[in-house]
Design brief:
Layout: E1 3-9, E2 21-25, E3 34-39, E4 42-51, E5 69-70, H1 79-91, H2 96-102, H3 106-110, H4 113-125, H5 143-154, E6 159-163, H6 169-183, E7 188-192, H7 200-209, E8 218-221, H8 227-239, E9 244-247, E10 259-265, H9 282-293, E11 296-301, H10 306-311, E12 325-329, E13 340-345, H11 357-368, E14 372-376, E15 385-388, E16 405-407, E17 412-414, E18 421-423, E19 436-439, H12 443-453, E20 467-470, H13 480-489, E21 495-498, E22 511-516, H14 530-544, E23 558-563, H15 569-575, H16 579-593, E24 600-608, H17 611-632, E25 636-638, E26 642-649, E27 652-661, H18 664-684, E28 688-695
Parallel strand pairs: 6-11, 6-12, 7-9, 7-10, 8-9, 10-11, 13-23, 14-21, 14-22, 20-21, 22-23
Antiparallel strand pairs: 1-2, 1-4, 3-4, 3-5, 15-19, 16-17, 17-18, 24-27, 24-28, 25-27, 26-27
Bound molecules: adenosine-5'-diphosphate and zinc ion (2 copies).
């Protein structure tokens, strides 16, 4: 007898096929079963969402198409997982089909059933290694670690674990994971990290710690894996074979039927927010998922996001209970001292100074003692702009509203937005003047400049100094980053120049001096989250330093900041290593300004052939949205359309509009209504290429 099944397929949010489609089937499968179905002229992967409610077999619609086959050898996805997909799609304004099927490994879609069958067989034939190594000897917990772990064993959370770098947070994650895995021999643990390629040390540590579970019990999940590796990890997690999944943001969507603990390390890191397609926050979904599945959630950081900090504020009688529980570990493990902050007032330095004399002297002293120096700069390339002094020509990108960056190593002008790369012109393209110069400085130029400043120095053994640079340019080749980091770890490098990339996650054990050359931009940025990111970056960078236990007290580390605003409160808080003070001050400002977490935001973005076209679409959306809002008396503000900060990229004009409310619920109601209006409007605005909604945007 023919059944009617509701099947989710991947259709983009704006295609109007938002919900599941009805298919016929000879057989019924439980919700969550993967199937193949015809869709238009092609065959596609689908997910059985439910049996058609109230379908009457007597009235089967003859035009319906049939399910082709099922992938039931894989086993259905759980009701929890489907609920997570349903929530996430609704919250981030995408179709459930797009969200759910998009979160599955691509090979499930691309391989035929017989190919899959072979893969599954092969997996089963892989016998588990029988000799399970013993757990390595564990350090005695510090009293802070003990306290935190006791609370975690007694309370459900979610927890915000606030601890300086080196306070032993990772050790807490590992111990808590071990407890959870021991208590229940099916339990699964999900450990999220910002960028797995940047944290190879963590992966090694996790694998060592849980080696006794067998090699196949620990899997990684990140976008750098091959499709085959991704499928394998996903299957391990889905079947429960993987007890611990270590992954980047996409892993929060993995099928883990026995999930009992989710750790989000460096929970403030912006990379947890997907910046294209379905713009979800893995951290926020982790919290939702934890609640859904009764899995404990730990959000760890030395500099929690102000959202998490606010939600974990101490309870006040008479007020609603905070959503998270804050646990703190203020001390560093062992004798590791926190670096002292030194500020150089650049107002007292000769103009155009890149590296001030006091900083240079301090660097020389460190290098002379064979200690390492880390220099941070937020721009890669040699110089951000090339400039003709005669006629004022600048190296604008013809396709973007941005300058092309001068890269000296290959003498190219490169646009960091559309990738247009051209050789540096010999003379000014506008007036022919041969004397064109570089404006501003990037990592390449600083690397060169430091080599000049330090050319008279050598190592005690007479060898020349080594100055290295790590940024997106120097690490393009596969394995390059790991190789370069290894050189730094081996002490082969005296001075390391890098972008924020180097501030994340590494143990630079012999680094005793960290310098931020020019952090002022973030102090007065239009982006209200810029100071928060700067504080996190500087504290994290400082935390990289001096983690070598053999360093003595007089080798105490230093963090140097060159600034025109040495008395800025941000640097005062940094000097005291006072994240709480910094957070309180900024939360007060945010409360006064009505910014998140005291309000909720979304952006509507549009891209068009012209800026007018993009804005016209947005303003029409505003008009129709406001009519509805007035009707519903919902307090949601829709601001006027403005060009995006980077207005034109690859000849596409971009505009955006901020939507804000003090009520998350009101904002959500509005967005889901607006979604339909936008789809209609889009048809009337043919010059609009794309539009998208970004809920809880990180960059405005
Ligand atoms: P975090 O994650 O907060 O930066 P880690 O957990 O990585 O801190 O700990 C920092 C260093 O201290 C690591 O080398 C770790 O092995 C060590 N460590 C952590 N806890 C202890 C402990 N209880 N006793 C001794 N060493 C510890
Ligand atoms: Zn010129
Ligand atoms: Zn460009």
């Amino acid at each position: 007898m023919q059944q009617q099944l509701l099947v989710l397929v991947s259709t983009p949010a704006y295609s109007r096929l938002n919900g599941p489609l009805v298919y016929l089937s000879e057989q019924t499968w439980p919700a969550g079963t993967l199937v193949r179905v015809p869709l238009g002229a092609r065959e596609t992967l689908g997910l059985v969402w439910a049996e058609q409610a109230g379908s009457d077999p007597g009235h089967v619609d003859k035009n319906l198409r049939s399910v082709l086959e099922s992938l039931d050898q894989i086993g259905p996805l759980s009701a929890h997982w489907m609920a997570l997909m349903n929530f996430a799609a609704g919250y981030y304004q995408r179709s459930v089909g797009e969200f759910a099927l998009g979160s599955l490994p691509p090979q499930l879609r691309d391989l035929s059933n017989s190919q899959l069958e072979r893969k599954l067989k092969k997996r089963q034939s892989l016998v588990q290694s029988s000799e399970n190594p013993a757990t390595p000897a564990l350090p005695d917990l510090t009293s802070e670690q003990l306290q935190v772990l006791t609370r975690m064993a007694q309370e459900s959370g979610p927890f915000v674990l606030h601890g300086n770098t080196g306070s032993g947070k990772t050790e807490v994650y590992l111990r808590r994971a071990a407890e959870v895995l021991t208590q229940d021999d099916q339990a699964q643990v999900l450990m999220l990290v910002p960028e797995i390629n940047l944290t190879p040390q963590l992966e090694v540590r996790v694998r060592q710690r849980f080696a006794h579970l067998g090699e196949s019990a620990i899997v990684s999940m990140h976008s750098g894996m091959t499709p085959a590796q991704r499928l394998n990890s996903w299957l391990s997690a889905h079947t429960g074979q993987a007890r611990l999944v270590l992954g980047t943001r996409l892993a929060v969507l993995a099928s883990m039927p026995h999930l009992k603990l989710i750790v989000v390390d460096e929970e403030h890191d912006p990379s947890y927010k997907q910046q294209e397609g379905a713009r979800y926050s893995a951290r926020d979904l982790a919290v939702y998922r934890g609640q859904l599945e009764s899995a404990q959630v730990i959000l760890g950081s030395a500099t929690p996001s102000l959202e998490s900090w606010h939600h974990s504020r101490p309870a006040v009688a008479g007020e609603a209970a905070p959503r998270y529980v804050r646990l703190s570990m203020p001390s560093r493990v062992g004798s590791g001292l926190l670096p002292a902050l030194r500020r150089v007032d650049m107002g007292n330095q000769p103009s155009k100074t890149l590296v001030s004399a006091p900083l240079l002297n301090a660097m020389r002293e460190r290098i002379a003692k064979r200690e390492q120096v880390l220099v941070l700069l937020n721009r890669r390339g040699y110089a951000p702009v090339l400039h003709c002094h005669a006629c004022g020509w600048k190296s604008e990108c013809p396709h973007c509203s941005a300058y092309r960056v001068f890269h000296k190593s290959d003498r190219s002008l490169r646009c960091h937005h559309c990738s247009l790369t051209q050789p540096v012109p010999r003379a000014c393209p506008s007036c022919g003047n041969q004397d064109i110069g570089a404006l501003g400085h990037g990592t390449e130029r600083i690397e060169e400049h430091l080599a000049e400043l330090l050319h008279d120095m050598q190592r005690p053994d007479g060898m020349p100094l080594r100055i290295a640079r790590i940024d997106a340019d120097s690490t393009r080749g596969k394995g390059e980053l790991v190789r370069q980091l290894a050189e730094v770890h081996d002490g082969d490098v005296d001075v390391l120049v890098g972008t924020q990339m180097v501030a994340k996650g590494h143990d630079f054990r012999r680094v005793t001096l960290v310098a931020a050359l020019n952090p002022d931009g973030a102090l007065f940025s239009a982006d209200f989250r810029a100071p928060e990111r700067l504080f996190a970056l500087l504290l994290q960078a400082a935390g990289r330093a001096g983690r070598d236990a053999t360093l003595t007290r007089d080798q105490a580390c230093e963090m140097w900041v060159q600034t025109f605003h040495p008395t800025h409160p941000l640097f005062e808080s940094l000097k005291q290593h006072d994240f709480a003070g910094f957070a309180e001050q900024h939360l007060t400002e945010r409360r006064q300004a009505g910014l998140p977490p005291f309000s909720f935001q979304a952006l509507l973005r549009a891209e068009g052939r012209t800026q007018e076209a993009a804005q016209a679409f947005l303003n029409a959306a505003k008009a129709s949205g406001e009519t509805w809002l007035a009707d519903q008396s919902l307090a949601v503000t829709v601001y006027p359309a403005v060009p995006m900060g980077l207005q034109r990229v690859a000849n596409v004009e971009r505009a955006q509009m901020l939507v804000e409310s003090h009520s998350r619920k009101a904002l959500q109601l509005f967005l889901s209504h607006w979604q339909n209006e936008l789809q209609d409007l889009r048809g009337q605005h043919k010059a609009v290429l794309r539009w998208a909604i970004d809920v809880d945007p990180l960059v405005i």
